[in-house]
Design goal:
Blueprint: H1 10-13, H2 30-40, H3 48-56, H4 69-96, E1 102-104, E2 107-108, H5 109-124, E3 158-161, H6 169-175, H7 177-181, E4 188-191, E5 195-201, E6 207-212, H8 215-233, H9 243-252, E7 260-264, H10 274-280, H11 283-292, E8 296-299, E9 302-305, H12 317-336, E10 343-345, E11 348-352, H13 356-365, E12 381-384, E13 387-390, E14 393-394, H14 407-422, H15 427-430, H16 434-442, E15 470-474, H17 483-493, E16 514-518
Parallel strand pairs: 3-4, 5-8
Antiparallel strand pairs: 1-2, 5-6, 7-11, 8-9, 10-11, 12-13, 13-14, 15-16
Helix pairs in contact: 4-10, 5-12, 8-12, 12-13, 14-16
């Protein structure tokens, strides 16, 4: 089957300039149906991995023809506000809890809190001035749209901040004097009330809520997040490496090392209540994080006073939730005298399986909800950090999250199907027609884009190296960056490095404009071959 391409338009090339042809062609609307039918038509029989793939493949598919975007957004906002109602109840309960309340068998609230606070204090260490050295992200802020949000741009011109942040500017300028030298680059510091809610696609029927933070707040938040991340490394929690939790989930799937449970929480970042953080963190740390967070969020033009401490979009939320969950789980193991692995990555939690029920109870007391559909303490299945394992077999599925619109979308699905086929050495032999189904996707891709080796790319098809002269290369839309902002961004990127990096002002592109680039001689080759490809 060969795909039909629609006539190239100005939007395909990003503007009136046609110095090169956009090779990432748009495809006919019928291709989405063909791709879905190709995956669905595979005869997997009773194979566990394929049954799981079929169930999950379209679970995150978002399409206007199924559930319109405005309905998904409304559902997300409704869930966000429901979490806020739950947070209000949690804040009230934590404010009134009896110190003699038994949170665990024969363990009072006072005892539990004392241990957990001491552990968090040891992890965080003293609050020093250098914690203000943060960074700007490449995302939108309350003052800037996504199209003008390169970090270098945020060092010049307008910048928003909340009332509690003003007092930290002097400390920031003292720790980074170059910012004071160029402080005139912030031509307009504007005080705002808080963050702004937006949504992004998540599942077929609901979006995910996140919040755009004020610029200076985000800079300081990312400094705090980086500090927590560094300190957690001292306790063997590496938030830069998901493979640790995946390996634990793999081991737990067939009880190799004594039995591990994997826990996943529902809307974890939206359930970090104010009093939860206040109860667990040292006072000086709570006060600082409380000052640099947004206390209000704008939802459809109206401000809402937040019961949660920090939302998704805040620069320290991920690190803070990891810290809290690690400390709570370590406390459970300590008081229950169950030594063993405790590992966290955000709300992905690994603990000894005998602690699972008590851990869920403790998490509930602090306002969190365990997602029972994605948490496992018995049986042969475990899931953590995107890794799914059944009795020692990697059955991690892949997902089609949107309709197939571009050539790169086809390459992505074909590469993911091939990766899935080779995740287990016998899978390609046990599932009839797997190779033929992959070939249907392969034949939609021009042969000069074959011969890739990296399954994570969508710019070159992974095949044996008989074909393939080149690959697609995304083209960055040129963006004029203020030289002074670029200079400050370069310095900011090197504050915490021992070796200076070369300055770069090129923004990262995520658009669909691609040119064809020839593959250099000696490029790596695909190592996984179907039997039919050896003939």
């Amino acid at each position: 089957m060969r795909i039909r391409t629609r006539k190239q338009t100005r939007s395909d090339t990003g503007g009136p300039s046609n110095r090169f042809k956009n090779r990432n062609t748009r495809v006919d609307q019928s291709v989405s149906t063909t791709v879905i039918e190709t995956i669905s038509s595979i005869d997997g029989g009773e194979n566990t991995a394929f049954t799981y793939l079929q169930r999950e493949f379209l679970s995150k598919y978002c399409d206007e023809t199924l559930v319109p975007g405005d309905i998904r957004r409304q559902n997300a906002i409704r869930k966000f506000l429901e979490c806020e109602e739950a947070n209000r109840a949690t804040n009230l309960w934590l404010d009134q809890v009896d110190p003699e309340y038994n949170i665990l068998p024969r363990v009072t609230w006072k005892q539990f809190l004392s241990f957990t606070r001491r552990l968090i204090r040891d992890i965080l260490g003293p609050l020093r001035d250098e914690v203000v050295l943060g960074s700007f992200s490449g995302g939108a802020s309350t003052s800037r749209r996504r199209t003008e949000s390169h970090p270098a741009q945020k060092f010049s011109g307008k910048a928003d901040l909340t009332e509690g942040v003003w007092k930290f500017l002097d400390i920031l300028y003292r720790e980074a004097p170059i910012l004071r030298q160029y402080t005139s680059s912030f031509t307009s510091l504007v005080e705002v009330r808080g963050s702004e809610l937006f949504t992004v696609p998540k599942k077929t029927d609901i979006d995910r809520c996140a919040c755009k933070e004020p610029d200076i707040n985000m800079f300081l938040q990312k400094g705090a997040g980086s500090h927590i991340r560094r300190r957690l490394r001292r306790f063997n929690i590496n938030l830069n490496d998901q493979t640790v939790n995946r390996q634990h989930a793999y081991n737990g799937s067939f009880d190799r090392i004594g039995g591990l449970a994997t826990l996943d929480l529902s809307s974890a970042s939206d359930r970090i209540s104010i009093n939860c953080v206040k109860a667990l963190l040292p006072t000086e740390w709570f006060d600082y994080l409380n000052d640099i967070r947004s206390h209000e969020v704008k939802i459809d033009g109206e401000y809402h006073r937040m019961e949660m401490f920090s939302s998704m979009g805040n620069g320290f939320t991920f690190e803070l939730e990891s810290l809290i969950f690690f400390a709570l789980m370590r406390a459970v193991s300590y008081f229950m005298h169950t030594p063993g692995i405790v590992s966290v990555y955000g709300d992905d939690i690994i603990i000894p399986k005998e602690n699972a029920d008590l851990a869920e109870s403790v998490l509930q007391r602090f306002g969190f909800v365990v997602n029972t559909d994605k948490s496992f303490s018995s049986g042969p299945f475990r899931e953590s950090c995107g890794g799914h394992y059944h009795n020692g077999e990697d059955i991690t599925p892949f997902y089609l999250k949107r309709s197939v619109q571009y050539l790169t979308d086809i390459i992505r699905v074909a590469n993911q199907l091939r990766r899935w086929a080779f995740a287990d050495s016998f899978r390609r032999f046990l599932i009839p027609g797997l190779y033929q189904s992959w070939c249907r996707l392969r034949d939609m891709v021009p042969q000069d884009l074959w011969g890739g080796y990296d399954y994570s790319l969508d710019t070159k098809l992974v095949t044996p190296p008989q074909f393939g002269k080149g690959a697609l290369q995304r083209i960055s839309t040129k963006e004029r960056l203020d030289p002074q902002g670029s200079y400050l961004h370069w310095h900011n990127s090197n504050w915490n490095r021992t070796q200076m990096a070369e300055p770069s002002a090129e923004p990262v592109s995520t658009n669909q404009i691609c040119r064809f680039r020839r593959t250099p001689p000696g490029a790596p080759a695909c190592q996984d071959w179907f039997c039919e490809e050896l003939l």
